[in-house]
Design goal:
This protein is α+β, with helices and mostly antiparallel strands. Helices cover 23% and strands 36% of the residues. The chain contains 6 helices and 11 strands. The strands form 2 sheets. Strands 1, 2, 3, 4, 5, 8, 9, 10 and 11 form a 9-stranded mixed β-sheet that branches. A two-stranded antiparallel sheet has the order 6-7. Strand 6 and strand 7 form a beta hairpin.
Length: 213
Amino acid sequence: MKWRVKMSIDFNQAWLSQLDLLALIQRSLRRGGFPLAYSQGFNPHMLISWGPAHAVGVASLGEYFDLEFSRPPREDWLRLWQKQLPEGLDLLEARPVPPNSPALMAVINLASYCLEFPFFFNNSVDTYIKNFWTAQTWPIERVSPKGKKEIDAKAGLAAIKQEENKLLAEVWLNKGASLRPAEIATIFAPESSLSAVTRTGLFIEENGKRKEP
């Protein structure tokens, strides 16, 4: 039996790495004594699969993962599980999904973010946004442990707009290298400093229609 869980992460827990978060989730499930399903073989592991990775330092209004049980859990399992989690990790909802449902990583293709800044310099953001969309390409350099490479920021950005001291961005996850919040800040608000980032949504977008996983 497979369940799809939606969980929020506040700023106090946003600094957990993806591996730390997964380990914490697994420990909390074991402490709760739930009828968890495990893989077969010499090194069985809990059958849990995540959507797009949660970036360190980014709060979230909704992360998704699929969890499998060996038999139906008790009706109040989500409430009992919440008691095993630290403050700042909130289980928002859970629903059963078909066992053969596509993996979340395979279907989630769009993420939305809210980037907060202490201030913007005059009307510079509006100018940067206009210049970005009128350009044919917008190459930026990305540095990783594997070295440097150039990516086209226009291929990865679906939408961007300013609201007061915030940038609201939508990023494609399936069109080349997905733009990171820090890269968005560098492009559209280079004079300011990024103070907080929240991933506000993860979506499946097909043929112009958008839905939550």
